[in-house]
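Below: protein 1.
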Amino acid sequence: MKFLSVSESDFLYEMAVNGACVVEHAVDPGLCERMKEDAHWYYRQMRPVQIAAGLEEISQWSAHHTCGRHDGIHAFLDSAVIEPYISAYFGNKPFILNTIGTAINPPIAETGRYEHGHKWHRDIRTYNGNDARQLLIALVLLDPFTIDNGATEVLFGTHHHADFPPANFIERFKRTMTAPRGSVLFMDGDVWHRAGQNHSNAFRIGLSCVFTRPYRKQQMDYPRYLPESYASSLSPGMRQLFGFNARMPASIDEWYQLSENRFYKSDQG
């Protein structure tokens, strides 16, 4: 197992107080380079679909549900290198992948912009508070994140409050999360954040992995979405991650099953 630069106890403390934590050098640079190539491949595949759906501007420079191939992203997920942090965040109980996608932060000189990412936002629409730990974001830095190239900005502590903070709070508590390539920025789903403006002359790419407890509905039904040839090759750990142990039956025949054959397994919470 790769040595990780932040202890689980320090990770949990930073997440509780700040709503964010950076673990540096968690992913090998070579794998980051492979995943950058994957990001461009998925974007090329999905761009015509985005345009046909009338989402040309709002979806520009992003690709969603970037999985289903034996590529660099698969290798990263299968390595489970950040699993100790995810498991600790969810109280050492099962979790699944809610969604996964890539974000390409373009130089400001480029035509178009990463529309959604440049606005302050939370990744959860319904605020529960009380340290609910509904959702954990793991943003894998496929490039170095710097002030110049628009590193992610986080409003520390805002996961404790339902409302968006006033302007004077933003100026005082905004943190620019700079870190080397291969680092992972973890964020509580309730913390406000955004991508910074990229003033460099190169694209800055991140892989966003979102994890939840199994009983929360996935943004994509991955057990149905993934190609059968890919799904049948998955390890038990990857099947858990993609939600194969937390499926919903779609017929009475699927509902009435012996416990070992049930779509939603009894250990999923």
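Below: protein 2.
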Amino acid sequence: ANPELHEKLQRRRSLQNEDVIPVSSSYQPSSPTEAPSPLSSSWLDTISVLNLERDKAMADKRKIEDEGYHHTIALTSEVTKLRLDVEVMRRDLELARKEVYELRMREQRENTRNQRDLERSVHQDLELAVAEARVQLLSSDVAWSVAERKHMQTEVERLEEEGASHVVGR
């Protein structure tokens, strides 16, 4: 229970207890020269009944106020717990948001890295295809050159034989 509320409750009870003034059963004179005049018993009975009703009403009022204070204390405690729960949930939510942000950034970096790797791979594949095409072109050029060389060599040999046959024939 909240000590401040407890203190207020005790103070209120003490003030209410001071308000209760006992009614004497006999009339007290207001001045020394005044003679005491006894009240009739019906008046005393009525006053007594009214005092009892007042006391009961005051007790009921105190009981209701006490219940109200206890209920207020309980609600205050519950509100405090709920505020703590809300704060914990806010902190957890903030941590979750940060984690989601970090995961998204990591995924974006990974996607960028994968995209670069894919582009490099495609570029390397294209370079490889160009190199292979160049190899085939050069191979065909070499094969053509070899064939031409053989043809020329055959032509040279034929011309040498023809030249030799002209020299021998003369």
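Residues 45-163 form one domain.
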